[in-house]
Design a protein that fits this description.
With about 140 residues, the chain is an all-beta fold. The protein has strands at about 1-15, 15-35, 40-60, 65-75, 85-100, 105-120, 130-140. The chain has a single domain (about 1-140), classed as Porin (Beta Barrel), CATH 2.40.160.20. It is elongated and about 50 Å long.
Amino acid sequence: MAISISQKQRLFSLPIIAITAELQTQLGVTNVSEQRNSGVQIKGIETAILVGLNLELSLLPKYWWIYVGGSIGPQFISNTPQRQNDGFVFSDSVYAGSRIKAGIRSQLDLKAGFRHQSNAGISQPNGGINSLFISVGVLSLIKR
C-alpha cells in the first residue's frame, strides 16, 4: 500500500491526444516474498521521487482517457529479500491505465503495470525486485 502525490504538466496537446510529464513522490509499506513460493513475507518501507512521461488518448473528450507511460527515479527501501541490498535503489515502471471524470474537478484513475527495483550495481547483493502492481486513485484538479 502506498500514498503518492503527483504533479502533472502537459507538454503537448491536440484535441484527442496529449503527452504529459509527471513528478511523483511516494511513501509506502511493502510486503515482499523472501523467496518464490516460500510463503515467508517481509514487511518494509519505501519512499521515492519519480519522474515520468505519459501518452494519453481521449476516448470521450473531457470524460474518459486511456494512457500508457513510464517512470524512473531514486528510492529508499528497507527489509528487502536476500537477493537485494537495503537502502538506495532505482525504481522504474511501465504501466497502462484509464481515467474517468468523477466530478467537476476530480477523476477516478485505475492503472496496472510492472516495476523493477535495483541499485545499478552500486552494492551487493543486487538481484533486483520485480513486481506487478495495480493502482486505484482519485485525482483532484487544482485550478491555477
